[in-house]
Amino acid sequence: MKDIKEYSVNEKPQWCPGCGNFGLLTAVKSAFAELDLEPHNTVVVSGIGCGSKIPHYLRTYGYEGIHGRIIPLAEGIKIGNPSLTVVGIGGDGDGLSEGGNHFLHGGRKNTDITYIVQDNQIYGLTTGQASPTTHLGMKTKTTPNGVFIPPVKPIPTALISGATFVASAFAGDINHLKEVIKRAIQHRGFSFIDVYQPCVSWNKINTYMWWKERVYKLDKSLSFEEALKKAMEPYLTNWEKVPIGVFYESNERKPLNEIINYGNELLTNIEEDLREFE
Ligand code: SF4
Question: Is any atom of ligand 1 closer than 6 Å to the C-beta of 117?
């Protein structure tokens, strides 16, 4: 186990005081430390948004990509060098709107990466427009009469698209969040975590207290069908009950990076055979 300071930099985060990103940053560093990850073998990939500044605040390799492209960047890094631990971190707008297409394909490709969505139900960096996960009825700069389109459902979508590890957590419970992140990194395949976290400046509804009154922890492993049913609970109860924890984990499918590298080995063998034949 390493000291959490091994992942710290001198630069101070430029986030509003109280932002949920602080809890996530602490949980990520603690998970890295407890998993004994070497900073030089760890890559954090982000997109565009307040939370996507996170690679600047971690002493690991980092890549801040363009909007919505966290997953393909992380997949490419992992396939190029499978010995690296690759973690993608970005907001709900970045990942589920601009990056929605990649989110669908991330699950079915099952590359061995961890993808964390900082889900604060708003576009924070651009000062408060409705995001794909903004709850029905919420008034924002772009929805002055309230959101009337149902939100994207990240956890059910991840399950249906084939993600082999699907979880949620709350940035106000750092210890639990850290444990979920550790399990996600240890999972061999595409791991998805939807992190509920307050944007204290632009989302005055989904506050720390609001989440605390609603979240409860899953305490047993679930089948795929049970996981899907649980994942729908917030939508079916109008957010009265919000389960957090690991919904589903399966090791049945081989990660894409292992299949591709096996394919490369085959090609190398074929090329060697051909050379012998010549
Ligand atoms: Fe965090 Fe919201 Fe401030 Fe962005 S605007 S730093 S998400 S509190």
Answer: no
